[in-house]
Amino acid sequence: MIVIDRIRINGFRSIRTLQMPLGRTTVLLGANNCGKSTVLKALELALSDETSVQKEDFHMDAVGTFAKELWVDVRFVPINPQSNRLSMFPDQWQKEFAGLIRRDHYRREYMAFRTVFTRHDNGVITKARYEILHWDAARLGEAIDVLPHAIQFVSIDAEENLREDLKNEKSFVSLTVNELSTVLKKHPDYGVKPIEDLKAMLDSLSQTLEGPGTGLPQGVALTADNIEAFFSLVKSDSEKIIPFSVLQGKGSQKSVAILSIVVLVDLLAKHAQLSQKPLFMLIAAEEPEIHLHPNAQRALMTRLKSLSHQCVVSTHSPYVASVSEPHEFRSMLRVGEDIRVQWLPQNIDPMETRVIKRLILRFRAEVLFATGLIFVEGVTEEQLIRGMFQAYFGEDPSTYGISIIGVDGKSYAPFLMLALSLKKPFCVISDNDGDARHVVLKQLSDTERRVHSRAQDNQSGVFFLSPGLAIEGELVYKTGLKREIYDALWACNGSTNTSPKSKHLQYERMMALAPRDLKRKLEKKKAEYSGFLGEIIAQNPYNQSVDNMLPIAVRKAFEQISLWLGKTKKDSETETVSYT
Fold first, then answer.
1. Given this model, what pLDDT does residue 217 score?
2. Domain named ATPase AAA-type core: which ranges (predicted)?
3. Cα separations (Å) of 52 from 11, 55, 72, 174, 494?
4. CATH code: domain of residue 144
5. Nearest in space to 471 (alpha carbons), one of 378, 386, 574
């Protein structure tokens, strides 16, 4: 088994220069215009001759000058089924890569090459490939005229169109269908044999993509002849296929294209296995979630990972991310003219991996796509901080791409590791009762040490409520939210007696509560009151000043967030809260 473990890109579109490690599965994250699609297209340029480049594909510098050259380096290495790197290529690949295999300073084998596009003064763009003799020094060797046939690049585009792929003679779909036709001409007896395992897989995937009850027609055996006939029908643009709804809706078109690629990938893999030939397939999927419902997104990602030898996916979907492994993420960020790539430590142990998957990826994968993060203890704080954010900034945090995440207690460590590793700015707003301060700061310092990154270097920090207080005590003793608290408690009272006199009496009793009793009442209601109170704070019906409604720690956190958003920092009479 082989994979591409490194890629280098120079002078291609928005990427001036970029190096990135790849795994068997790599999930590219990041905002628009950070280079995700460019990485996928760079892999295609390196591994396929399907597409060409134009002048606009060469990197343009700050003064508007296009580069004269762009190139992409890829390095193949042998791995075992557990994705651990091996020292030598298997015999099949030794023959396939004959003369191209080199060794690194650890005496481990690799095969690497560079694909170069040069823009000449007369406007002509030429393409060439060269073997890389020394990866670290990027020293080139002889030209490579033809890539090994065993290397296959499979593209799944956000707006996949099966007909367009079939019309492109160099596309994976077109080349594979032609190869299928050639094999059937040589071995016509193969064409009528049912492919039961492929049929079962397609029926399952079809139901996930299109809904219950869908699948291949009953009573029709899936054979190579049927597959060839289907692609011929689609390619011919015949009116016979127009009435079928599967090729009319955008979502259904995408489903048909994906199912077709699955068929061809499976057939190609079976052919290689039966003929005992080496085969490497890299599936590059750009936003495969488009036009698919959440369950279909999860199922498709799982299927792509199982089908390919290597899979690189760009996505904005938390559902795609939820079925990925923490070490598979690559977060891309544009900083000026440069693009930086961040990832989680590769040495995290299985226990930490399980915690990240359970606490973050399963239910809170939006953390991966946020531009900034606010971490709090739980649901109560989530709802309160959201209302306070709206009162302070005038907008919901989602407007700015900021996610508020409750960590269900004081288990901040996995969230801190993810934020620090991926260079996402964050604020922790924590209670300050018991040993909370010690526990949170220790988690932060331990995580900073592990990932070699400091929170304050990324405009991040921890902000504590008043000493000895949890959120309910802070609301009662340290803010001017008395009327708002009464209104929230009244809203969640749940009394069936709705007479005006009864309401007035109950409200008066609440107004007469001592602060200690009011705090206890809030503690009993917890998440029930916080939703109402968060909405009341956002609406500010009593026209209070923001400083009167927000705890000092929350104001300080929001001042920090103002720096992320490029807003003017609010004036405050209080000193900055220290978290070091």
1. 65
2. 188-320
3. 15, 10, 14, 17, 67
4. 3.40.50
5. 378
Give this prediction's pTM.
0.84
Check residue 511 and give left, alpha or beta (phi > 0: left; psi -120 to 50: alpha): alpha
> Are residues 531 and 463 both part of a single domain?
yes
Burial of 460 (0-12, 13-18, 19+ CB in 10 A): buried
**One domain, residues 407 and 546:** yes
pLDDT of residue 242: 43
Round to whole Å and give the CA distance between 563 and 571.
Answer: 13
Q: What is the pLDDT of residue 362?
A: 85
Quick one: 412 and 561 in the same domain? yes
Residue 401 token pair = 């791409």
Q: Quote the strand ranges of 441-540, DSSP E.
A: 461-464
Q: Is 409 helix (H, G, I), strand (E, B) or coil?
A: coil
Q: Note whether residue 213 is domain-resident.
A: yes
Q: Which are the contacts of 398, defined by CB distance < 8 A and separation ≥ 6?
A: none
Closest to 278 (Cα-Cα) out of 144, 152, 176: 152
How do strand 329-335 and strand 372-376 relate by DSSP bridges?
A: unpaired
Q: Which helix (H) or strand (E) holds 269?
A: helix 250-275
Token pair 């991040």 is at which residue? 460
Residue 131 pairs in a beta bridge with 113
Domain shared by 198 and 249, yes or no: yes
Dihedral pair phi/psi, residue 2, rounded to 5°: -130, 155
119, β-bridge pairs = 125
Matching residue, tokens 């996928």? 40
Separation CA 103–CA 352 (nearest Å): 34
Sequence-ordered alpha helix ranges (H) in 24-67: 36-47
End residue of a domain, out of 228, 244, 277? 277
Number of domains into which the chain is organized: 3
Nearest-Å Rg of the Cα atoms of the chain is: 29
**258: closest CA among 224, 314, 222, 209?**
209
pLDDT of residue 227: 79
Of 370, 376, 425, 422, which Cα lies nearest the Cα of 398? 370
Asked if 356 and 324 count as a contact pair (C-beta separation under 8 A), the reply is: no
Give residue for tokens 């040993």: 435
Sheet holding 25-29, edge to edge: 151-156, 280-286, 310-314, 25-29, 329-335, 338-342
* 234 and 89 fall within a common domain: no
> Of 277, 304, 326, at which residue does a domain stop?
277
In a domain, 339, yes or no: no
Strand, helix or coil for residue 122: coil
Identify the domain containing residue 190 by its residue range: 152-277
Residues of the chain below pLDDT 50 = 239-249, 569-580
pLDDT for the residue 246: 44
CA atoms within 13 A on the CB side of 203: 13
Within a domain: residue 536? yes
Check whether residue 87 and residue 157 sit in a common domain. Answer: no
* Residue 143 belongs to some domain of the structure: yes
User: Do residues 255 and 377 both lie within one domain?
Assistant: no
- Helix%, strand%, coil% for the chain, nearest 5: 45, 20, 35
